[in-house]
Every structure is written in structure tokens, then in C-alpha cells.
Write a structure and sequence with these properties.
The protein has 185 residues and is an alpha/beta fold. The protein is built from 7 helices and 5 strands. The chain is globular and about 50 Å long. The mean pLDDT is 90.
Length: 185
């Protein structure tokens, strides 16, 4: 089983990437799934002009990203909240693809510097994913006060409780993947 983890912030000094690092390590140590972080900072996609399927000369990195999303059994999106909404880098890449998202189980982890854990971004992100036909996993993984919750390498300050929450979150993803695979059979 393959789980792609999208680290959606491209901002200098970003902190949400810490959660992406945590999930990569947690999933690989606690499940049989393989993971890969798809870091939007590394991709640096140009501003959305057209969906991939309509581009006449798509960039190789765009094709590579699309293939990785298509090959993944599930996706975890780790996103900060910017002014109550989705970071433009994330909205850009969601709009870039289409068929790659359809019926794909997608789990969301929202992150904030403050106490509300990115709760406002959740509604707009779920709506966007719903509009393109993705299957948003019911379990969420909100992270408040990120700088105090995880270090730069993705290690949680309260490992026991974080791992407990992560186990519930990841198990929900795995259940959705299994259900999705049964529906395809």
C-alpha cells in the first residue's frame, strides 16, 4: 500500500512540514504502507493556467507529481491555514489535476501556530476536494501550536498522545483504502 503525503506550505520558515515528516516516520514504523512526501516547496509549480490533461507541453515535474498521486492508494494532505483558507500552493496543485483525485481517499491534517489548529481551512479544503470527486477520510488530525508540538525533524513533544491520535487517524485511512479497493473489485 502506498500513501502519498503532501506537504503543502511553500512559505519560508514553514512549520507544517514537521507534521509531514512525523507521518512518514509513524506510518513506516507502524504499518505495512510505504510513504513518500510530495513537498510542494520542492516542486515549485507555476501558477495554475490549465489542468494537466489539457496542457500541450506539461512540465516533467507535473507529470511526475500526477503519476505519484495516481499510484498512491491514499493521500494525506498536511496544510497550514492562511487567513482562514487554503495555501495557494495547495489549491494550485489540486486544480492542476482532476482524474488523479477522483475517488481517492484523502485525509487532512490541519496545522496552525495558534490554538485553533487550522480549523477554518478544513471547510474550504473539504469543499474543494468534494467538488473534484475525492473521498475525504472522516478522521482529522488537527495540530495547534505547531512550534510547541513538533520539533524541526518531526518529533512530537508529547509522543505518547500524538502517536495515539495518529494511530486512530491512520487506521481510518487504511480502512478507507481497503473499502475503496473492495468497491473497485
Amino acid at each position: 500500500m502506498k500513501i502519498a503525503i503532501i506537504s503543502s506550505s511553500v512559505r519560508t520558515g514553514r512549520n507544517s512540514h514537521r507534521v509531514a515528516l512525523y507521518f512518514k516516520k509513524f506510518i513506516e514504523e507502524n504499518t505495512t504502507a510505504s510513504t513518500e512526501i510530495l513537498d510542494l516547496m520542492e516542486y515549485q509549480f507555476p501558477i495554475f493556467e490549465e489542468r494537466l490533461k489539457y496542457q500541450t507541453n506539461p512540465l516533467p515535474k507535473t507529470i511526475e507529481f500526477a503519476e505519484k498521486i495516481k499510484a498512491a492508494d491514499a493521500v494525506i494532505i498536511v496544510t497550514p491555514e492562511y487567513n482562514g483558507g487554503i495555501p495557494s500552493s495547495l489549491k494550485n496543485v489540486i486544480d492542476l489535476l482532476y482524474v488523479e483525485w477522483v475517488k481517492k481517499p484523502i485525509a487532512i491534517s490541519t496545522v496552525s501556530a495558534g490554538p485553533f489548529a487550522g480549523s477554518q481551512v478544513l471547510v474550504s479544503l473539504q469543499f474543494t476536494l468534494w467538488k473534484i470527486g475525492a473521498w475525504t477520510v472522516p478522521a482529522m488530525f488537527p495540530v495547534p501550536t505547531i512550534a510547541q508540538s513538533f520539533d524541526e525533524k518531526g518529533s512530537p513533544t508529547d509522543k505518547e498522545n500524538t502517536d495515539k491520535r495518529a494511530k486512530t487517524f491512520v487506521n481510518e485511512i487504511l480502512w478507507c483504502v481497503e473499502a475503496s479497493q473492495k468497491m473497485k473489485a
